[in-house]
Structure formats: C-alpha cells, structure tokens
Amino acid sequence: MLYKLNVSIHDVTKSNLKDVQTLLELLDNLSVKKITLLLIPFYHEKESLEEIKDWLYEHLEGKEIVLHGYTHKSGKFNDFRDFLTRQEGEFAYYNDLEDRLNKAIKILKDLGLNSEGFIPPAWLINKEGLDILKKFGFSFTTNRLHILDLKNDRKIFSPVLSFGSTGIVKSISINTFKLQTFLLKQLRLPVLRLALHPVDAKDKTKLKLISDFLSSENFEYIFLKESLLL
Fold first, then answer.
1. Is the Cα dihedral 215, 219, 221, 222 positive or negative?
2. pTM beyond 0.90
3. Cα(199)–Cα(91) distance, rounded to whole angstroms?
4. Nearest-angstrom CA–CA distance, 32 and 11
C-alpha cells in the first residue's frame, strides 16, 4: 500500500534555526520533497520572523507555510494541559485571539508570505477559536487526532506522530514510536502525519527512528492542504 504522509517541522523561529536546518537536511537526504513549515511570528514576544527573513526567502520555496500561533506562549493552566504544554498553549489560554491573529498575519504579510492554514501551539484551541479561524478565512487547522477542513466543517481522522520533549513523555514517545507507526499503518488512514520539533534534532535516537520510519515505505508526501482533497 502506498501511504500518503505529511511531514511538518514546527516552531520555525530565530533561536531554532540551527535545529530546523538539521531536520531539513535529514529530510532532504531521505528525499522528502514536500514539507510543511510552521512559522511563529513573534516567538515568546522576543523573536520576530523579520529577523530571519533572508533565511525564510532562501528556504521556503517549495514548502507549505502554516501560521503557528502568534507568540506560542501562554500563562499557567490549572489542569493537565500545564503538564502537557509547558505553558505553550497560547490559543487555548488567551481570549484576545482575533487581535493575536491580526498581528500574526500582519507580520507574514509584511514579509510577503501567506498561510492557508493555522495550527495552534500544542494543538490546543477551543470551539470559539475555531469559529474565529473560519472568520479569518483559514482553510484548515489540526489537533492531535484530526485535520480539520474549516471550509466544509469536516474532520479527517489522522492521529499525529510526534515525540515528547522532556521527561517521561519523551521516554514513552521514543519507546512506543515503532508501535505507533505500525498501528497507524494498519488503520489505512487517508493520510499519516509526522510532526517534528527543533528539539528532536538534538536527539540521535529520535533522528534514527525518524530516518528508519521514512525509509520503511515508499511514501507519497503531501501538504496538509492537499489532504482536504482526499
């Protein structure tokens, strides 16, 4: 079976460029030609994409651009989300989402960039937030389990493969990665998703698992926006 696969690299920002570059080089060596890059316009209110515009112009050609929050930073959650997100669930925490989107989109426009999709930090957003994304004209978003077709109010079941960054979550994600990939293949999903983060580039075990997985099948790589046509 020929599996369709979307590969994304999250958290493209100034301080992550070295690790993002490592992941891009790995994917290039594995002949992954279609890659989705998630851009953070004003990371932690410290780093603007304007600071890396030369890098962006050099590396975005042929890639799918997706807006990934505004600052990617939240306050402290008083529930399990604080453990899972490390206070990064921006669009599940704040109420001024329209203002944040306006600011984020302006930064992209000033760079001559446009994003058809929006993926919230930590994949967390509430129903009101989804309605706001529709209002702004975004075609799609995603959570951990689905690709959401915002234009047609449709969900595509596609649990995302990713690694934890610290502690027990990281260990579990590494130790179960091969099992996860096996089980997802058995489901015959319309599209598989692999989400990489800059921190993954620092871990040789993760890089080996990624390489082995991408070498295990003759995948058809697709952009997230192409999954809406399946």
1. negative
2. yes
3. 22
4. 19
